[in-house]
């Protein structure tokens, strides 16, 4: 494609230079007028404001009209064809999942099944850029319909993961149906990227293997689903609560907020009063403090697990953000 464009450009330059220098010498005019004359002659515009007066000038006009028109026509057709070809190729690559994803700080989902579908919908609802690796290539249209970008290929091939730009991703979610392939994909991703890798495992027997493969977090969808199913039978309100807060689609959501720059020393009660959001747990190092008392104080380095609606969670994030700005301003002075 590039070679054809250069060839067309070279032909135009040769015709332009030939006409300009020939008219300038034969008609004794300036190079600017000669260039102007060459262009209007080759394009057959022919304003009639200047015409060749010498036999050699008329011969140059004949050559330009005969050859230049053909070159200009070929150039226009070729450049138009290149533009259309490039757009069609780009569109086809995108439609069939063959186009390389160029952006960074996105979320890559490897695999497409009910677990991956729910993850993609939840991420899209929260405004994340999502790229899905579809091994079969049969779900590209469905994936695009959910607002994600599809990349087709074998999840265990490095080239496929590079097409999904896994090396520049912020997070990688592995949701393959086969646990052994999921573990191998985990190993490959940990070699290619520094992103946080979360692996979904179907059998609890393979959870430790996934952790040893380097997964930052291992989720057992079957185990969680089974517990939720049991709760729905005997504690339907608990099951409904867990189902509703597991997604942002129903208004309330559970969010993780790092408190490294939050106002150190604030109590759980003060945080609730300021934001309306409820702290369900505090992760302090490797320890998870469930249902912290209202007088418990937030410490620098804590990670807060917070329940709230969209407005309450935004206020909670704003509290942490304003604390950052306050500390930054204080450091300046």
Give an overview of the whole structure:
This protein is α/β, with parallel strands linked by helices. The chain has three domains: 2-95, Orthogonal Bundle (Helix Hairpins); 107-225, NAD(P)-binding Rossmann-like Domain (Rossmann fold), CATH 3.40.50; 251-332, Alpha-Beta Plaits, CATH 3.30.70. It has twelve helices and ten strands. It has helices at 2-27, 31-42, 55-95, 114-125, 140-145, 158-163, 179-192, 207-212, 221-234, 236-245, 268-275, 310-332; strands at residues 107-110, 130-134, 149-152, 171-174, 196-201, 217-220, 252-258, 278-284, 287-290, 303-309. The strands form two sheets. The chain has a six-stranded parallel beta sheet, sandwiched between helices. Strand 8 and strand 9 form a beta hairpin. Helix 1 (2-27) crosses helix 2, helix 1 runs antiparallel to helix 3 and helix 9 packs across helix 10 (236-245). The chain is elongated. The protein starts with a helix and ends with a helix.
Annotation keywords:
single chain; 333 residues; alpha/beta; Helix Hairpins; Rossmann fold; Alpha-Beta Plaits; 3 domains; 6-stranded parallel beta sheet; 4-stranded antiparallel beta sheet; 12 helices; 10 strands; elongated; disordered C terminus
